[in-house]
Amino acid sequence: MQRVTMMDVAKLAQVSPSTVSLYLRKPAAVSAAAGQEIARAISTLGYVPNLVAGGLAAASSKVVSIIVPSIRNAFFAETVSTLQSELAAEGLQVLLGHSEYGEDQEEALVRTALSWAPAAVVLTGLSHSAETRKLLQASGVPVVEMWELGGKPIDMAVGFSHPHVGASAARHLLSKGRRAIVFLGARMQEDHRAEKRASGFAETARMGDVLSYEIINHPGAATVEAGSLLLTRALERIPNLDGIACSNDLIALGVLFECQRRGITVPDDIAVVGFGDLDFSASCIPSLTTIRPSGDLIGREVARLILNSIQGERPEGSARIIDTGHVLIERRST
């Protein structure tokens, strides 16, 4: 099969190839009449722009590489969706990869992304292999690390402090008079952000008026089932348990289900705090107190930094780091 070219589109639309090129980059810069003819020709011929060829001419493609820990994790969906909408409005396309929380896999994805001469690279978190950091620093490509602050970014960063999130959860439980509290997490040996939330929780609990506090980790994925298993372990280790903070809302939902199975009343017997404010959090029974990280705001700010960088207005100094903060949303579970 022969590939349809820009020349074919220009010939059918009876315009110059440069006009077609301008239309593909900035449709509003072409007259309405010419735009209609070009759009009709593209539809008739089934033309698909060759982004790689365009990238070779311009030293970068129209692709932005976004790497998240897992596409099965709902927490990143809102951010990626917002990013895609904001970038698409400016003619940029998203290349999505997931590392499954592995630094080696992330490094492989970064190598692949750089081979496409991306317009920018977006990573999740600040923890990467030394080789990944070296590759990105040498590339000259705009890099935005998202969903975490607190370390030295490769280039730019948008996110929030995870220890502060854990501290907020602990303070909320303490404010409700809970004195035997626990942080339940999963895969914290790989999920460094969840581990940092746990450390912030522990530090605040240690300084508070508590009878006991613990951090309990499930080695597998952070699922509803993991929440059930973690509550069972927590009750075995802390019989007088009266407050729980969870590394995400899925684990918290599993805790709520297991409490119902055991006849434990929430919040009278045990108060529960989640993280993420997922769709079910406001409608489950009881509704879940949780901490919202503003994933949509993160997406918009990442897109803004990328677009500014592409337009030659790369931020400098403190403008390279954006703190989107977090909000504790109190509901019936506490």
TrEMBL record:
Keyword terms: DNA-binding, Transcription, Transcription regulation
Domain HTH lacI-type positions: 4-58
Keyword Transcription regulation: yes
GO MF annotations in UniProt: DNA binding
Recorded coiled-coil stretches: none
Pfam families assigned to the protein according to its UniProt record, in alphabetical order: LacI (PF00356), Peripla_BP_3 (PF13377)
Superkingdom field: Bacteria
Protein known as: LacI family DNA-binding transcriptional regulator
Organism encoding this protein: Microvirga terrae
Lineage of the species this protein comes from: Bacteria, Pseudomonadati, Pseudomonadota, Alphaproteobacteria, Hyphomicrobiales
